[in-house]
């Protein structure tokens, strides 16, 4: 992962966990955050695959969460929200809602091992309970559909069969 993506990954994962909060206490919050961060990391690496892409992102900025906040009915004026990337959030929502698409996305990365993304790819019962809202396809639908077609196009012709 390019270090330049770190602020976008952190802000976008935080946006997801605030929009779709964990169910339970501190452990649930940590597990939900881990799942969101893994999905956002995969989405960010797909969206910004090269060092040049990451450098351009740092110059132009990701765009913020305004449209996402409109879709979900949330939001406030926190400065960190300017680092949220709408496309990355949408792609991460797609990956969280569709395990097959998540496997395709992780497989398309130059990742040495999918173990890095275990909570995204193979969540256990505790992970699922902790992130029940974050993984609920109906709740994620408004965010996921914003850029679903672009994710399928990025992954190539095979994922179109999934949709």
From TrEMBL:
- Name this polypeptide is given: Uncharacterized protein
- Biological source species: Streptomyces pilosus
């Amino acid at each position: 992962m390019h270090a330049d993506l770190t602020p976008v990954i952190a802000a976008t994962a935080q946006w997801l966990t605030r929009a779709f909060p964990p169910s339970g206490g501190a452990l649930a919050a940590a597990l939900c955050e881990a799942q969101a961060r893994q999905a956002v990391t995969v989405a960010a690496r797909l969206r910004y695959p090269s060092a040049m892409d990451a450098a351009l992102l740092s110059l132009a900025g990701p765009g913020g969460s305004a449209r996402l906040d409109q879709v979900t009915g949330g939001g406030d004026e926190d400065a960190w929200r300017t680092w949220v990337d709408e496309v990355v959030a949408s792609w991460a929502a797609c990956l969280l809602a569709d395990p097959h698409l998540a496997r395709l996305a992780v497989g398309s990365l130059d990742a040495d091992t999918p173990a890095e993304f275990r909570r995204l790819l193979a969540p256990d019962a505790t992970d699922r309970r902790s992130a029940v809202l974050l993984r609920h396809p109906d709740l994620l639908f408004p965010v996921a559909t914003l850029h679903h077609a672009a994710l399928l196009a990025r992954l190539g012709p095979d994922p179109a069969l999934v949709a």
